Model the fold of this input.
Amino acid sequence: MYMREGKGREGKGDVAGGDYGYEGFFRFAEAPDYRNGEECPAKGHKGYVSSCDPSLVHIAMTLDSEYLRGSIAAVHSILRHSSCPENVFFHFIAAEFDPASPRVLTQLVRSTFPSLNFKVYIFREDTVINLISSSIRSALENPLNYARNYLGDILDPCVERVIYIDSDLVVVDDIRKLWNITLTESRVIGAPEYCHAVFEKYFTDEFWSDSVLPRVFDSRKPCYFNTGVMVMDLVRWRKGNYRRKIENWMELQRRRRIYELGSLPPFLLVFAGNVEAIDHRWNQHGLGGDNVKGSCRPLHPGPVSLLHWSGKGKPWSRLDARKPCPVDHLWEPYDLYKPHRNHRLNHQQMLLSASSSTLVGYSNYFI
Done:
């Protein structure tokens, strides 16, 4: 088993075990109650939403105390811009041994989003701990980073498609647009590709100098893609046993140093060159700077649907340190963390009411 699923009324987000002393960890303001428009698909019985409901948009993300503030902001941004927020179902994967227990995290989510449809699953670290190798940044070694490898096992079999997202991003467009993207032919995942990136740098000299290993790419043209935003066909994933294919590369990495960057390279080895290319607007990544310094970076030119602070620097940390990058102020309106919130309200109102013409390069940021 790869997880111990939380019990309780589905859609209400209960898990068993733990305690309720969650306010000692974080305090969040309650989000507005976002409701469906008349054009939205009908849901099941009032007050109960099954994860098997075919009208749902499924989103999976991890949930832990270190990135909780980012997760809350990500959920808030999705609901705020969704045309049918009541048809969005969140699957949260929580760490087994997090300082805040899964029950604590569940209570925090429920108190912040009282009407949210969600389930919390407990990810057993022993599933993957013996497969993880050291990385260039310790945060990349967190077992929860590898939970995406096991979504086909963790989520209910009736969940046939899911959008996986990282916790350090905000969505500024209708998530259903991303959900409706077609995965053509037999492709298992969809993500923005970056074929101009130097693909060779993601693997070591030992990998490229081997007489056999580089042949994995012989029949495809590999391009870099960021695993922080993926549309995943779980039917094809399960049928093709892609979890095991990723684990095979992780096992080889334990014996031979063939890459440096944590959970990303195994995905590249399995999928690069066989990814459904999605518009770059759905992952404006790298806003957290590089993996060492976390320096400021601007947005890439063009329209924006999703802002992603991949890299070392996180917007909440830089804002709290009063050393924000300009793009961090685009994350700030979705932050529901309570301390100093009054100080931020005027700035948030300014951001959310600004016209697109006042934000150079962010023309499609606001809906």
User: Anything to note?
Assistant: The first strand starts at residue 3 and ends at 5. The CA atoms of residues 250 and 300 lie 32 Å apart. Residues 283-358 form one domain.
